[in-house]
Specification:
Elements: E1 25-27, E2 30-32, E3 36-38, E4 44-46, E5 63-73, E6 89-95, E7 98-101, E8 118-123, E9 129-136, E10 143-151, E11 160-166, E12 174-182, H1 185-191, E13 195-205, E14 221-227, E15 230-233, E16 250-255, E17 261-268, E18 275-283, E19 293-298, E20 305-313, H2 316-356, H3 392-403, H4 413-419, E21 423-432, E22 445-451, E23 454-460, E24 471-478, E25 487-493, H5 496-503, E26 515-522, H6 524-527, E27 532-539, E28 546-558
Antiparallel strand pairs: 1-2, 3-4, 5-8, 5-12, 6-7, 6-9, 9-10, 11-12, 13-16, 13-20, 14-15, 14-17, 17-18, 19-20, 21-24, 21-28, 22-23, 22-25, 25-26, 27-28
Amino acid sequence: IPPTMIGGYPGPMGSGMMPSGPNMSMAGGSPMGPNMGMGMGGGPMMNPPMPQLPPPNFEVPISIMHVRVNQATKLKNKDTGLFGDYSDAYVVVNLGSQEFKTSVIDNNLNPVWSSDNYFTFEVAVEATTLKLACMNKNRFKDDSLGETEVDVRTLARGEWCRFKEKLENGDDAELEFDVFFRPTEFHGLHLDTISLLYIRVNGAHKLINKDTGLFGDVSDPFVKVKVGQAEKRTPTIDNDLNPKWEEGNQFTFVLDDSETAIQVEVLNSNNFKDDSLGHVSVDIHDLEPEEWCSFQRKLEDGDGQIDFQAYLKPTEFQRRRNDAQKRKSQEGGLGKKAADLAQQIKEAEYSCEWLEDIAGKTRLPMSVEEKDWEHACGGRNLVVPAWIMVTQTQVAALQRSQQQKRHPVALFPEEAAQEGPAKMKVKITSAEGLSSSFCGNYPNAYCVCEIPLKPESTVKTPFVPANPNPVWRHSRTVKGYKPGDSVVFNVFSMDEDAVNQQAQGGGARQKKRDELLGTAALAGDRFFPDGFDGLLNLNLTLTGRQTGAALRVTAFVIEAGQG
């Protein structure tokens, strides 16, 4: 406030009032500013003026991105095409409000840039999309030859990353460029609050042919990976039913809370409309965080299988949600197992009641299943599971057997021959944890049981398609059994051609070796005379390493005069 205004600041007419503002205070009835005080006698006293300091100069670090455009291939021609008149290509690179352009290369559908192709951007936190558009230079209006985008949040930090991206709306055109991203510490912490999913497509096997098949013209496969609304694809490999991708096969996706599945589809590239060769889906909640998970999945709605890997880098919230989803799934599985166990306990209690009252000729309760075992129970029935139904005749035979003091075994063949041949019953119930090198975790499994060197003893189950835990419940009498004989179980996976042939009701199956998934041996003294009901570990050979899979079987012998 100028000194001349002190004591005479104009107010309302005749009011004598003075205004007070943020730069004035009242001391002794007079306004005082920050540079004024009261002198002797009440007059104003001026303080020395504040020195004029230069504005603060803080060097604020910024995030930097370098982009180098290398080349484009198979660009569309938007010019006449006469006398070498082709598209005059250049690339526009955009990040937020910043934009750069490469030099123009005339009449070239496969241009390579060696100058005016290196750009540096300042990256704000809110700038998340790097856009590159390939253009055709014209006198009046330029034409688009295709465009592509890169999500800045998915970039590796502090290292060069090479991209070879298919141009959208550019037919088969591709653009190759390099990106280097160096965020500030704050920017990096912000990026760490985002869940990322990395996908690497390795290859496919035994794909179906959707082309003519003449002169090597078979499917031209590529793979499309979709997570939520984001979609990426590999390059096309021409005329190959067993393709392997080594470039353009790694993708990064930003995850939000609504995205729960990875959709992978193999397609056959065509000029007009692509054909689907099959697809698979993987639940994101099933991925182990921060480790590469490999998948070899049989393609649904198609033949063959796809080989790919996934790596999940979740936020803490995403990690906790995935853990909760896994526990919920495990809870459902444990509930089913508990229900099955309760049923088995119930059936066991029924069996105990029957066994305790066997002298009263009580029949096994009729609530049990597996009626094909009606004649299976004999003198060694104490180890037979509770789901076997026993006839009254067999109860009487059991009573007679309890009065016998000894049983003929292989050590006394003459005595065994005098009383007639013994019968061996076997039931192949199920297998667990099977895996095939051709079908992955979905083998077309069946089991063959036989006594070595006795081909007439062979028992074979039907095959169960595409299941690592098949259930057969196949029961038969093993022919040619003599006390002391051992039994061998071999589990095979039927080849895909044979499975398709049976599904289509085709003719005789072509001779082709099925894949051996595991083998197990059951020594004679393990099921005679007391029977066997349990799991057998499956090995690749009888003496080789274990496969981790197991086979559930029941085997026992009905002695002469009891069946």
